[in-house]
Write a structure and sequence with these properties.
Elements: H1 2-17, E1 23-25, H2 38-42, E2 47-52, E3 57-62, H3 63-74, H4 81-102, E4 106-107, E5 110-111, E6 115-116, H5 128-135, H6 137-142, H7 144-152, E7 157-161, E8 164-165, E9 170-171, H8 181-185, E10 207-213, H9 214-222, E11 239-244, E12 250-255, E13 258-260, H10 262-269, E14 276-281, E15 284-290, E16 298-299, H11 300-308, H12 313-320, E17 325-329
Parallel strand pairs: 2-6, 9-16
Antiparallel strand pairs: 1-17, 2-3, 4-5, 7-8, 7-17, 10-15, 11-12, 12-13, 14-15
């Protein structure tokens, strides 16, 4: 009997109390808070080290102040408040994910700093001065408070999978369905599964056209592949899409004597996405793309569309990141 009792006590300790030392998982429906005071925005118990690409220096910044700068840099302020909250949780989670990977060493590309402010490498972060320079005083007065509200009303909330911060990939517009991670980045991640993203009609980059001369098209490939050859007179029959992902991205495309991934062609010609069609028109090649970005994780415009359908930020996040939990940082201290 004693062994049974001790077994029950041990089970309760492992399943209930042990996770509390790390983070407390919660069924979250956070209400909007009053506009936070400036001191609450600046101060934070957890400090993030950030490499400032503009000044070539490493700075220390509070987690919530960092999150405000990322949301302001990465998402349109005109978005619905619930979409901005979802973006805030994703931005905050990214910093904690980096922290769990590199601890105090920082990323190998910027040693000593967990993140940088370059959107092409980490997440874009803009200071209040940069935002004022980019948008003007009216934007600071009318839009920044909304972003601050989105961040501070979700303060300390991150996404976790198996009690660990996730890698919260996101992009502008998926084109109708997001991608499985392995179809874009080769590695299968359980919470980065392709899902429908039907409410993106408001995105200005849902569909895009890009036209290039046949001469520049061929030379663009040859400049990067010396062994490339193509019959220019029969170019229409020399371009063949071999395979697409479930999300619509081109997985394999044959052009001339070589096979490429859609991602390679996208990067080669700076297309908005790898979900494209190719048409030969007289002396030019016309690309028609759907969506903008890699297509994995949360679609920002899809999130905004869901918010317009009265979905809350937690519903948005759980839609785009399968099987994740919303968790509150138990303590910002080590």
């Amino acid at each position: 009997m004693k062994s049974v009792i001790w077994g029950i006590v041990f089970f309760i300790f492992i399943t209930v109390f042990m996770p509390m030392f790390i983070i407390s998982s919660c069924d979250i429906s956070v209400k909007n808070t009053d506009k936070p005071k400036e001191k609450n925005i600046v101060e934070s118990d957890l400090i993030i080290t950030m490499y400032n690409d503009n000044t070539d220096e490493i700075v220390e910044i509070g987690l919530e102040k960092y999150t405000i700068g990322v949301v302001a840099g990465e998402a349109p302020a005109e978005f619905e408040i619930e979409a901005l909250k979802a973006q805030a949780v994703a931005a905050r989670t990214y910093a904690l994910w980096r922290r769990s990977l590199y601890k105090g060493k920082g990323h190998p590309d910027h040693p000593g700093a967990l993140v940088c402010n370059n959107h092409a490498h980490c997440q874009e972060w803009l200071s209040k001065e940069q935002l004022k320079e980019r948008h003007g005083d009216n934007w600071i007065e009318n839009h920044l408070p909304k972003i601050e509200e989105a961040v501070m009303s979700t303060k300390g909330i991150i996404m976790t999978y198996n009690m660990q911060p996730i890698e919260p990939l996101y992009h502008s517009t998926s084109g109708g369905r997001t991608e499985n991670s392995e179809d874009v980045f080769s590695t299968a991640v359980p919470y980065l599964r392709g899902v429908s993203s039907p409410y993106e009609e408001g995105s200005p980059v849902l569909v895009d056209l890009y036209e290039i001369s046949i001469k520049d098209f061929i030379s663009g490939i040859k400049d990067n592949h010396d062994d490339f050859s193509i019959n220019e007179k029969r170019i229409s029959s020399e371009i063949d899409v071999l395979e697409r992902t479930d999300g619509g991205t081109i997985k394999r495309i044959k052009i001339g004597n070589k096979e490429f991934s859609g991602r390679e062609i996208r990067e080669l010609f700076d297309l908005r996405s790898a979900d494209f069609t190719v048409d030969v028109k007289f002396n030019s090649i016309k690309f028609t793309t759907r969506g903008y970005g890699h297509g994995v994780g949360m679609s920002q415009w899809g999130a905004n569309g869901m918010a317009k359908k009265n979905k809350t930020f937690d519903e948005i996040l759980k839609h785009y990141y399968n099987g994740t939990d919303l968790s509150v940082l138990k303590s910002y201290n080590e």
